[in-house]
């Protein structure tokens, strides 16, 4: 049995999200203990004391990693408030890669929401997924930045564990 479907969608002249080959935004993302933000702005799963379930994803800024010439994988997600239900599993996969490859590259989680209840997006997340603040920011996203600070790979919403592992291997030259 075969089925057929049609769909229409708009394709813009200009991308709204950084693409492969672009210089990566040098984001100064929030880290645990940030005094100027609620703990859930660092990670929607953060505890009241500021602890996060994946500290390997919250121990450096993207700016610091790029300045040090380190490759970095960035996951922009909101595990608690995610509509697609892909955020938690993708964030967990990135965290697993951080445990395995964290000595060779940086891994960073950017929480989408600074304040979910008031629909306020984090500045760091907006730099990556909503730079012109038009349309729906959408999430999750994963970006891989090479040691020169250029975006080497990116995915929106759906990505396999194998895709992410391959991207790490590629950027590390393995």
Shape: globular
Report the helical percentage: 25-40%
* CATH fold assignment: Glutaredoxin
Placed side by side, the strands forming the largest sheet appear as 2-1-5-6
The CATH class label is Alpha Beta
Oligomeric state of the chains in view: single chain
CATH-assigned homologous superfamily: Glutaredoxin
The helix count comes to 5
Topology:
Blueprint: H1 39-42, H2 62-67, E1 72-77, H3 87-101, E2 106-111, E3 113-115, E4 120-121, H4 123-129, E5 141-145, E6 151-156, H5 161-172
Helix pairs in contact: 3-5
Describe what is shown at a glance.
The chain is an alpha+beta fold. The protein is built from 5 helices and 6 strands.
Description:
The chain has one domain (39-172): Glutaredoxin (3-Layer(aba) Sandwich). It has five helices and six strands, in the order ααβαβββαββα. It has helices at residues 39-42, 62-67, 87-101, 123-129, 161-172; strands spanning 72-77, 106-111, 113-115, 120-121, 141-145, 151-156. The strands form two sheets. A four-stranded mixed β-sheet has the order 2-1-5-6, sandwiched between helices. A hairpin with a 4-residue loop joins β3 (113-115) and β4 (120-121). α3 (87-101) packs parallel to α5. The longest helix is centred in the middle third of the chain and has 15 residues, at 87-101. The protein is globular and about 55 Å long. The mean pLDDT is 91.
């Amino acid at each position: 049995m075969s089925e057929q479907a049609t769909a229409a969608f708009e394709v813009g002249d200009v991308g709204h999200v950084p693409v492969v080959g672009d210089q990566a935004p040098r984001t100064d993302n929030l880290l645990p203990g940030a005094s100027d933000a609620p703990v859930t702005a660092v990670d929607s799963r953060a505890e009241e004391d500021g602890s996060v379930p994946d500290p390997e994803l919250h121990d450096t800024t993207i700016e610091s990693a790029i300045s040090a010439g380190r490759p970095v994988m960035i996951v922009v997600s909101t595990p608690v408030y995610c509509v697609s239900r892909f955020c938690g599993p993708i964030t967990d996969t990135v965290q697993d890669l951080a445990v395995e490859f964290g000595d060779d590259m940086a891994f960073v989680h950017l929480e989408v929401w600074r304040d979910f209840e008031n629909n306020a997006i984090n500045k760091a997340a907006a730099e990556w997924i909503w730079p012109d603040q038009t349309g729906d920011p959408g999430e999750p996203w994963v970006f891989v930045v090479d040691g020169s600070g250029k975006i080497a790979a990116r995915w929106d919403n759906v990505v396999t564990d194998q895709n992410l592992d391959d991207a790490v291997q590629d950027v590390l030259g393995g």
